[in-house]
Amino acid sequence: MKKSLLLFVAMLGISMLSFGQLDTVIGFTFPVQTGIDSLNANYGDTLNLGYDIRFESESAGTQDSITLTNGVTDYAATANSWENGADDKYFSIKFKTGYYTNLVLYAKMRCGGTNPGPKYFKVQYRISSSGTWTDVCTDTVTVANDWTTGVIDGWNLPSETWNASQSVYVRFLSITNETPAGATVDSLGIVKIDDIFVVGLNNTAIGENSLMNTRVFPNPANDVLNIENNESVSVLYIFSTDGRVVSQISNPGQSIDISNLAAGHYMLRMVAGDNAVKTQSLIVE
């Protein structure tokens, strides 16, 4: 399980219950190395969990392959073929922000040791696939052969990305053909990215939230969870700590059977018909 401060901030966001709550919009920690969903977001709004990370070339209009190699804790999205990639090649993610504001970005990047990729990157965003790429800020990301140099530690995304009716795209764009050692990046040059999170303020938690009186108990629980004022809940999700949906129940009743869940920590998320969201931690004994 991820134990970095970055993940702590993101997990805190999806467990807060106060109005105007901070929430994880999308997050990638790459807990598994293979499988059809291994490059997909494993944290965040349910609308964003199916989105993946990509490695692309703007001039060629193509995607290249991403593998999963050793990361901060588990695995990291890894790409080579960064040669001649300045202002052209990039990692990208996309996500929905329909009811989120005050968006903040976190990520960690690293160069390969024996085969280093480019040293400098910048972060850009656009609204919809046909939008114009725009710098998030004037800062650049300096990447080295460690996980502590190339850290994006809470960059504010512009207000244009808030409450967007179309998908928001964020990319991590190479802006040099030079390695950290000053050599020219070749086709074997490697860059990794891990612990990518976008967090924001969940507007559905402000004012008269339709789930404000809904309560789940007991916690810790054993075989059964009770839901008080369950009428507003359209879907209930239970997530494992690695971001997998282990249970999904539509229109849950006043009690649900959780006897199939192994003992441990989980995240519970309820979604109402008006898209209000309420999340909390859950302990199963």
Automatic annotation (TrEMBL):
Secretion system C-terminal sorting domain location: 216-283
Alphabetized InterPro entries for the sequence: Secre_tail
NCBIfam families in the record: Por_Secre_tail
Name used for this protein in its record: Secretion system C-terminal sorting domain-containing protein
Upper lineage: unclassified sequences, metagenomes, ecological metagenomes
